[in-house]
Known about the structure:
Layout: H1 5-45, H2 57-84, H3 88-108, H4 111-141, H5 146-178, H6 180-201, H7 218-240, H8 249-270, H9 276-299, H10 305-313, E1 314-315, E2 317-318, E3 321-322, H11 326-350, H12 357-381, E4 387-388, H13 389-401, H14 407-417, H15 423-448, H16 453-473, H17 475-482
Parallel strand pairs: 1-4
Antiparallel strand pairs: 2-3
Amino acid sequence: MATTLDDRVPNRKNEIRGVGGMAFTELWERFSFYGLQSILAFYLLYELSEGGLALPAAAAAGITGAYGGAVYLAQLLGAWTGERLVSPRSMVLGGGIVIALGHITLAIAPGFLGLSIGLVMIIFGTGALKTNITSIVGFILDGEPAAKKDAGFSYFYMAINSGAVLGPLTTGFAQNQWGFHFGFGLAAVGMIIALIQYVYSSKFLPTRASEVTRPLPASSKRRVAVIALGAVIVVTAASAFGLLKAEKLSTIVTIACLIAAAAYFTTILRSTKVNACERQRIRSYIPLFLASSLYFGLLFAKFTAISLLVNDRVDLTVGSWTFPVGWITMISSASGVAMLPVAAAIWKRMGPRQPKAGTKFAIGLVHIGLGFAYILLISMAFHGSSIPFVYIVVFMFVMGSSEIFVGPIGLSLATQIAPKAFTAQMVAINFLTLALGSSISGLLGQYFTVVSNDIYFLTIALGAVIAGLVLFGVRKPVHHGLYSGI
């Protein structure tokens, strides 16, 4: 029997409720991630009398960079688990609970032990939640026309951006007024509220959200359990023997990211399910993968090296009021959000005349490199004195606005060039650029501690601009292979 309009209305209402519930949950997950990152380095750096842990600058940079990288790495594990072992619906619920408990631990447990337990919980909780909640939105919108899918994901993406701005805004204010532990606890309250509405909205989700799409056979589950136990033993032993020192964490995560990327690329390129054109596209994507990883390493330096700069040299006072340190990184996120509609309008207006992906990546690298050249001039101008925070605000705006040439372009490109048999894996590879970038930012933060500010900014500015110009110079052969067969 044909489906009538009346038959479709309840499903449409459930669809709206489902997407809205997922968007609200995702907003608080991003609130957690960006809110914590905005004040984490300062918590590690501040003196005990100021509520911090008084760690050396190199250790603070290493932990902050490794934390961001580990969060993105954990999402690959979460995506696999949600496909092979546990349903996406349960993964999101469990992940949200673990995130909330992680923030509660940070809020009430003092010292480095409380920090370590809280961060590990948030890493695994975020890994379980983020990719699976995106999958659920895809399930809800499956079968809808392209326009409705775009609208649904736009609504979801708006929640991500809102959390990225609201997290640092409110966490930074709470830290500024009442201390770090209040800032850490704020996300727990939001996550608990999100979980309550998630349980309610779960009844509107499609059946697929409660199913394991590709369950592992029993024999494979036993093998996975043995591997997981072995990993726990190795990590515990490494920690006991002092191999997981704070200064080494960014290096460890960087190596893990490179190994994961090599495994993904090797698997795809060697697969018999990939044809010649698809294989050529993946090979041509490798330089863009490296360029994107470098770009995010520079962008995420706002959480490491720039946080060190703010802590050491920037005057945050405005009369009798102190500008919250957590708001510094929020400016970068807000500028990126503000520029996205502008960029979208420009690309739409240019149509087929717009620059291709390699060119946009090159522009993004040069753009952020010029931003570091600007802060170099500011550092030199205020040599021996405090830098007014307004100059850092301008720098953060320049950094954030450069993301329009790399962030959304990379995600779109990964879906465009993905081999039919490896669409999910290409999205995972795109996530790896964020993971690798975050861990690289930790290494760059440690480099910041061993050279002068001027040498650091000169090195970064030249490196970014040169990398951008080199990529621009080889754009034609890269694009020739990148769009092969498309």
